[in-house]
Write a structure and sequence with these properties.
mainly alpha; two-stranded antiparallel sheet; about 5% strand
């Protein structure tokens, strides 16, 4: 189910790029549609991280947040912050979890 949702978001991003090219010169652009996509992406990340915590034996509780996910996931996968994603067609690498490498337990985003 989550893969299908990922594919739908990916298709939406490709469609959006027909109107606004993914290029550093456009990084300050604003669009309600882009905000909707961003919120959908963040929501799906939250759901998947909760599932990962559960699979690692640390189920989340009401009120769990990104800091809880970070503590659980980096305990099992200390190099998680090194995960690199390549954004096509820009061929631009990003490290979405790089902050997780430098934060210590108890620190908040």
């Amino acid at each position: 189910m989550h893969w299908s949702f990922f594919e739908a978001i990916d298709a939406d991003l490709h469609e959006y790029s027909r109107y606004l090219e993914f290029d550093e010169r456009n990084f300050t652009a604003y669009s309600v549609n882009l905000v909707r996509l961003y919120l959908s992406i963040c929501s799906e990340i939250d759901v998947v991280l909760k599932m990962l915590c559960k699979q690692l034996g640390e189920p989340t509780q009401r009120g769990s947040d990104i800091n809880h996910y970070r503590a659980v996931i980096t305990q099992k996968y200390p190099n998680f912050g090194n995960v690199r994603v390549l954004i096509h067609p820009m061929n631009r690498p990003v490290w979405p979890w790089i902050e997780w490498k430098t934060l210590k337990d108890g620190c908040k985003f």
